[in-house]
Amino acid sequence: MTVYFIGAGPGAADLITVRGARTLAACGVCLYAGSLVPRELLAECPPDARLVDTAQLDLDEITAELLRAHQEGHDVARLHSGDPSVFSAVAEQMRRLDAAGVPYEVVPGVPAFAAAAASLKRELTVPTVGQTVILTRVAHRATAMPDGEDLATLGRSGALIVLHLAAKYADRVVDELLPHYGADCPAAVVAYASRPEELIIRGTLDDIAGKIKDAGVLRTAVIMVGRTLGAEQFRDSHLYSPERERHTC
């Protein structure tokens, strides 16, 4: 058997990849985070599949479910919201499976920041304005940030910053980024990206924290700060430039 860590996408059930849906449909066991993964996706599972909501399970209990399925000879779909490559808590699960000798594969999904950018109708990298995107979060009691990865340090780059799990700490985000980006720097928040209840908040570093509070956004949101969010006057990309040399076969 194989454990498949599948990126379920940012929320909309139809944003799972074709590979993800096909893999889900072939697995006899599915572990999913009930608080984050849309229930509609479970319809892709085989009718007789064993479904396990991991919302209230700890790592040991999740690992036990994976090992049980392995012993019973079942392929397992481990559904994670967004994409498994960032902020998914997949690394420690894979480490446990490595220690137990259980094979696994990773099926990528649409990350939340990509869905947020689509909702904002923005390209995050714009010629001559910004070509770097930083994906990060803020420190809190549960997990500290490594040295050198605090917002004040990252903000010195001036790059577009995408913050996960940070809506609750909007005031701190503003305080740490303001000296580097300025009060007029465009900022945006997308909560529940791609879902029916999606909420988009636009503003600047000067007012975005207040707007987040007024909207009551506390979780399941992405904060973006950077000049590319408001870029209008910029040079066209060289990719489609008439001056670019093109070779025909």
TrEMBL record:
- Which protein family is named in the record? Belongs to the precorrin methyltransferase family.
Query: Is the keyword S-adenosyl-L-methionine assigned to this protein?
Result: yes
Q: Which CDD domains match?
A: Precorrin-4_C11-MT
InterPro entries linked? 4pyrrol_Mease, 4pyrrol_Methylase_sf, 4pyrrole_Mease_sub1, 4pyrrole_Mease_sub2, Cbl_synth_CobM/CibF, Siro_Cobalamin_biosynth, Uropor_MeTrfase_CS
What Enzyme Commission number does this protein have? Answer: 2.1.1.133
Question: What are this entry's molecular-function GO terms?
Answer: precorrin-4 C11-methyltransferase activity
GO biological process, alphabetically ordered: methylation
Q: What class of enzyme is it?
A: transferase
- Provide the alphabetized UniProt keywords: Cobalamin biosynthesis, Methyltransferase, S-adenosyl-L-methionine, Transferase
List the source organism.
Streptomyces incanus
Which residues are in the Tetrapyrrole methylase domain? 2-208
Q: In which pathway does it act?
A: Cofactor biosynthesis; adenosylcobalamin biosynthesis
Q: What is this protein called?
A: Precorrin-4 C(11)-methyltransferase
